[in-house]
Amino acid sequence: MTDLKPSLYWDDLEAGQEIATWTNAANEVQLLVFSAITWNPHRIHYDRDYAHTEGHRDIIVHGPLQGAWLSQYVTDWIGPLGRMKRLGWQNRGSAVVNETVSFKGRVLRKYVEDGEHLVDGEIVEEGSDGATLMPATFTVALPSR
Amino acid sequence: MSDDLIPPETAALVGKPAGEPTEGEVLGKETVRFAQAVDDLNPLYLDDEYARAAGYDGAIAPPMFFNVALTGSRPLSETREDGLFRSGERGPRFNKVNRTMFGGEEVEFVAPIYPGDTLRGETVLESIDQKDGRSGSFVVTVRKTTIRNQDGEIVAISRSSGITR
Question: Interface pTM (ipTM) of the complex?
Fold first, then answer.
């Protein structure tokens, strides 16, 4: 029987606290399998010449893939006993293939609502030049001591 | 706030259904492939025993998976030059502006989604607002999709916004 212990407690967090930065990048193979599983045939995700004709500097990383990375950043942070309640983001810019992007997060506030120990936070996904690609906010429920 | 970009017949669409409901089964092979495509190998998505120890009934779908189940299947003959499927659906019409870009998404995760579930998504046009910024006026359209499982239980609520300028 697997016994899971909380990796993050609500009690140990405070507003302003930073979440460890995480970097990631998608190569052509990853973009291909993501297009396949999401049944997304848009050429900007695999045809470099076509992406140029739409004004993009290279093949574009799918918005929903970056959304799934935001989700991964949150769920890795809260651990298996935390629950992601809400995640929202804005598409300001697009990452391109093989571009290293950074996810930087911090805690905005913590509170108790309907018996749940909740934390609101924000994340910025930045491109390799430091430009904001996706600003995001989230709410999670965490175990408390 | 001005609203000269939003004709009355478009404003009247607020609160009404946007498109037909979408439906689809959550296949265990697809939830795993989605996790692999994201490269998010969280055992909650892969390992029933681990997920049960975390308080679930078994391995769950990754949070952002639900759209995979709701996306319809289309033949290649219906794709355009840019690869996208032809849309039979006409979005709301506005005055003076017509170029719509995806603005963002917000998802409330209400209950876990499991392989074997059948999801149904119903979308309504939640709001249409004109914004007058320094770079000019534009319209923000928010679509709210309520996703239920086979028991009628709400599992997620997704809001996606489009910006037309």
Answer: 0.96
